[in-house]
Design brief:
- The protein is built from 15 helices and 17 strands.
- By secondary structure, it is α/β, with parallel strands linked by helices.
- The protein has a seven-stranded mixed beta sheet with strand order 6-5-4-7-8-11-10. Strands 14-13-12-15-16-17 form a six-stranded mixed beta sheet.
- Strand 10 and strand 11 form a beta hairpin.
- Helix 5 packs parallel to helix 6.
- The protein is globular.
- Bound molecules: ligand DWN and S-adenosyl-L-homocysteine.
- Ligand DWN binds next to helix 12 and helix 14.
Length: 406
C-alpha cells in the first residue's frame, strides 16, 4: 500500500489528510448515511521522484455515468485547447494526410471537436458515459471505456497506430501508469508523439495549492518523474512547456527514444526542479508546514467573519474544494452555500462537509458579503464576469498562494 507505484520502493510520507470523501462525490441527503470515505495520504519516492497518493479509490467509483465534471464549463479552457490544436497540427508528427489522433480522457469533446471539425481521423477514449455522450452527440468519435490493454488492442485492430496521443488532466488520474506507458509504446507510430499536460508539482509546492491533491489525482508529476518513467519503456521526454491552466500545469512531449532531438527545455526544467527541491524528500517536507499554515489562516479568517455576522459563500464547487473543506473541517456554519454552474451538482451537498450547492442564479440574487473562490485557477475568467458582485460591496477570499481578502 505504501510502495511507489513505479519503482516499488517504500514511499516517504509527506502529508496525511485523514478521512476524505470523493472529490466529485456530490451527494443527496438520503445518501449521507452511505457516503464513501478513504484515508488520503501523499508520499514521495526518492528513486522515481514521483509524488503520489498511497491509496486511490477504485476508478469505477470515480468515473462513471454520473461524472460531475464537464470540461466545457470554462470558456478559457475552450480557448486553451483551440489554441493548442492550432499548434499541434503544424507538428511534423501530424504532417501525413491520414494522421490519426487518439485522446485519452476526452470528456465532452472540448479538444477533439477541433480535430473533428477539420475532418481528422480521431478517437476519444472516455469512461464517464454522461460526458462522453455529449461528445458523441456532437459527432466526435468516442469510445466509452477506460484506456487499458483492451482499448489499446481495439485501437490497433480497428485504426492502427496513432500519430498523436493527447491527454489533458487525465494521465495523473490513472493509477496503473506503468501499464499506460507500455500501451502508449505499443500504439504510437514510429514518428508519433505522446503529448499530455497535468497540474505541475512545482506549482503545487510553490503556491501551497494542496487542493490539487484529491482521490482523482493519484500523481503530481514533474520533469524528473516523467523522464524516469518514460525511460523505463524506451520512450523519451524530448520537450516540455509550462502552462498557466489549472493553477500551473506542465505539458510533456514524449516520443520513441531517439526519434526527436531533446530540446533545451528539459535541462532547464531539471535544474529549476533541483533548486525547488522537487527531487528531494527532505526539501519537500516543508510542504507540510505550509499546508498547516494555510489551513490555520483560512479557518481563522472564516471564524472571524462569522463572529462579525458576515455571510460567506463558496464560488464553484470544484473537486479541489473537497480537500480544503474536509481537511479544514469547514461546514455550512462557516460557508452558507456554494454556487456552481453544473446542473448535476446543484441541489446536492458538498462531499463530506454537506454544504448546500446552489445554482448560479442563487448567487446572483443572494450576493454574500464574501465569496471564497474555490475555482481560483479560473480567477481571471471569473473576476471579469463578476464585476457586479464587487460593485455591490462583495469581497473575494482567495487561499492560493496565500489566504487573503481581495
Ligand atoms: O483534473 C480535473 C480537472 C481538469 O477538472 C478533474 N479531476 C476534475 C476537475 O477539477 P475541478 O472540479 O477542480 O475543476 P475546475 O475547472 O477548477 O472547476 C470546475 C467547476 O467549477 C465546475 O463545477 C463548474 C464550476 N465553475 C463555476 O461554477 N463558474 C467554473 C467556472 C469557470 C465558473 O465560472
Ligand atoms: N481532458 C479533459 C477532462 C479532464 S477530467 C480536460 O482537460 O478538461 C479527467 C477525465 O479523465 C474524466 O473525463 C475521466 O472520466 C477521464 N478518465 C479517468 N480515468 C481514465 C482512464 N483510465 N482512461 C481514459 N480516461 C479516463
Amino acid at each position: 500500500m505504501n510502495k511507489c507505484k513505479i519503482s516499488g520502493r517504500p514511499l516517504n510520507k509527506i502529508f496525511d489528510f485523514g478521512k476524505q470523501p470523493l472529490g466529485n462525490g456530490f451527494i443527496t441527503k438520503k445518501n449521507f448515511i452511505n457516503e464513501y470515505f478513504f484515508k488520503m495520504v501523499v508520499g514521495f519516492c526518492n528513486e522515481s521522484k514521483m509524488f503520489q497518493l498511497y491509496f486511490q479509490p477504485s476508478p469505477n467509483k470515480m468515473f462513471h455515468k454520473n461524472y460531475a465534471f464537464y470540461s466545457s464549463t470554462s470558456k478559457h479552457m475552450k480557448i486553451h485547447f483551440r489554441n493548442f490544436f492550432k499548434t499541434l497540427i503544424k507538428h511534423k508528427a501530424l504532417k501525413s494526410k491520414d494522421a490519426f489522433i487518439v485522446e485519452i480522457g476526452s470528456n465532452d469533446g472540448i479538444m477533439l471537436k477541433n480535430f473533428a471539425s477539420k475532418n481528422y481521423k480521431h478517437l476519444g477514449i472516455e469512461p464517464s458515459a454522461n460526458v462522453a455522450k455529449i461528445a458523441k452527440n456532437n459527432q466526435i468519435n468516442t469510445r466509452i471505456s477506460f484506456f487499458n490493454n483492451e482499448t489499446s488492442n481495439f485501437i490497433l485492430n480497428n485504426y492502427g497506430k496513432a500519430n498523436l496521443i493527447y491527454a489533458a488532466n487525465v494521465i495523473c488520474h490513472i493509477p496503473n501508469i506503468k501499464n499506460l506507458f507500455a500501451n502508449i509504446k505499443k500504439i504510437l507510430k514510429n514518428e508519433g508523439i505522446f503529448v499530455f499536460e497535468d497540474p505541475y508539482l512545482g506549482d503545487v509546492i510553490k503556491k501551497t495549492s494542496y487542493d490539487q491533491i484529491y482521490d482523482e489525482h493519484v500523481y503530481l508529476f514533474s520533469i524528473h518523474s516523467i523522464k524516469y518513467l518514460a525511460s523505463l519503456y524506451n520512450l523519451e521526454l524530448f520537450d516540455a512547456k509550462h502552462q498557466t491552466t489549472h493553477g500551473g500545469s506542465m505539458r510533456y512531449y514524449i516520443c520513441h527514444s531517439g526519434n526527436y532531438k531533446p530540446l533545451k527545455s528539459i535541462q532547464k526544467y531539471l535544474s529549476h526542479e533541483k533548486k525547488l527541491g522537487l527531487d528531494n524528500f527532505k526539501k519537500l517536507k516543508k510542504f507540510k508546514i505550509n499546508i498547516d499554515k494555510s489551513k490555520f489562516e483560512l479557518v481563522a479568517l472564516l471564524k472571524k467573519l462569522k463572529k462579525k455576522g458576515k455571510i460567506v459563500a463558496g464560488y464553484a464547487a470544484t473537486s479541489k474544494s473537497t480537500t480544503i473543506l474536509n481537511l479544514c473541517n469547514i461546514n455550512s456554519e462557516l460557508i452558507s452555500y456554494i454556487s456552481d454552474t453544473t446542473k448535476d451538482k446543484q441541489n446536492k451537498y458538498s462531499p463530506g462537509m454537506h454544504i448546500p450547492i446552489k445554482n448560479y442564479d442563487y448567487f446572483k440574487n443572494n450576493y454574500p458579503d464574501y465569496a471564497v473562490l474555490f475555482a481560483w485557477n479560473h480567477q481571471k475568467e471569473i473576476f471579469k464576469k463578476e464585476k457586479d458582485f464587487i460593485k455591490k460591496g462583495g469581497k473575494w477570499i482567495i487561499f492560493v498562494p496565500k489566504v487573503k481578502i481581495v
